[in-house]
Amino acid sequence: MESLIKGIFVGLPLALSVGPSSFYMMNTVLSANKLKAMLVLTGIVLSDILMLTLSLVGNNFIIETNTKIYNMLLIAFSIFMFVAGVMGILKAKKNNVELIMPKQKKQEWALGFRHPLLVGIFMNTSNPMNFVFWLGVASWLLVFFKPMSSSFFWFLTGLFLTTILGDVVKIFLSDLLKKYLKYTTTRLIKIIISILLIISSFYFLWLAIK
Questions:
Q1: CA-to-CA distance for 120 and 45, rounded, in angstroms?
Q2: For 6-56, what is each residue's pLDDT tens digit?
Q3: Which domain of life is it from (predicted)?
Q4: What is the distance between the alpha carbons of residues 53 and 145, in angstroms, rounded to a whole number?
């Protein structure tokens, strides 16, 4: 139980924070629907599990010893954020439009590069800051917990449940805003979020080239 509580406390900052991924999910709700946002969230969680696994098995050279790969990830993430922001602004004038993804069709849920699940995986994995976070978590786990022990898994359970719950709350709050605010207000919110995505893209690009 103590390990579960520790995991919850470690996950709280992530659950309460609003970063590029949160902005994207919120914009997806406002531009499309909460189901697509939940699929994006699923992709993010799968990406987090992948990064944590890589960190635990010793593949931290991606960040620690290869600056070029780190910078390439930053640039890829900045491009993704910029495109998402621009698309959000361009489509904010249209009612019931979808960010990046095409209008709903019969084949919409076919697994393509625009599928929200894959968008979530790519967006989260291409952000090297997430690698840094999970490398830190992995190091902390290996120091304070015996690998594959019950306390090890309870800690991870608390961590992931807290972060997932935080994102789910953000998605449903965005859906409430969409339902109860006037269209002009939600349109303004979409534009503001899109601008924040563009600002984030320039920040990550600056980190890559500085």
A1: 8
A2: 888 878 877 877 777 888 888 888 777 888 899 999 999 999 998 888 877
A3: Bacteria
A4: 15
Does residue 168 contact residue 44 with C-beta atoms inside 8 Å? no
pTM exceeds 0.70, yes or no: no
Tell me how far apart the alpha carbons of residues 117 and 46 are, in angstroms, rounded to a whole number: 9
Q: Kindly state the tokens that stand for 74.
A: 């930053």
Assigned token pair, 139: 């190091």
Whether 188 and 34 have beta carbons less than 8 Å apart is answered as no
Length, in residues, of the chain? 210
3-state SS, residue 188: helix
Backbone angles phi, psi at 94, to 5 degrees: -95, 145
| Tokens of residue 50, six digits | 């992948």
Task: For residues 33 and 28, give the distance between their C-alpha atoms in angstroms, rounded to a whole number.
Answer: 7
